[in-house]
Amino acid sequence: QVQLVESGGGLVQAGGSLRLSCAASGTSLNRQTMGWYRQAPGKQRELVASISTGTSTYYVDAVQGRFTISRDNAKNTLFLQMNSLKPEDTAVYYCNRADAYRFTPWGQGTQVTVSS
Hints:
By secondary structure, the protein is mostly beta strands. It contains no helices and ten strands. A six-stranded mixed β-sheet has the order 2-10-9-4-5-6, with no helix packed on it. Strands 1-3-8-7 form a four-stranded antiparallel β-sheet, with no helix packed on it. A hairpin with a 5-residue loop joins strand 5 (about 45-50) and strand 6 (about 55-60). The protein starts with a strand and ends with a strand.
């Protein structure tokens, strides 16, 4: 069974940075397009960044230029570097496949809280 464990969240002031990690077991992250999702209170979960099996990346407009997604194949870990954080980035962040074949169950996520 695939297990995804997110970590690295926390409380940070606006303008600060955080680096999220997603450690995977039961699958090789370099064999699929992976993504970072977030879910804010009262809102649907949304994909904010993805990385292909190569090096192609995608970012939603709201995080373009501030977030960077990357992958360490040797450690089978996905990262999300988040800079210039804004209060509207506050959410629980999850990693999963960025296509129709998302792994279930989802990980527990990691809480990111940005204070103004």
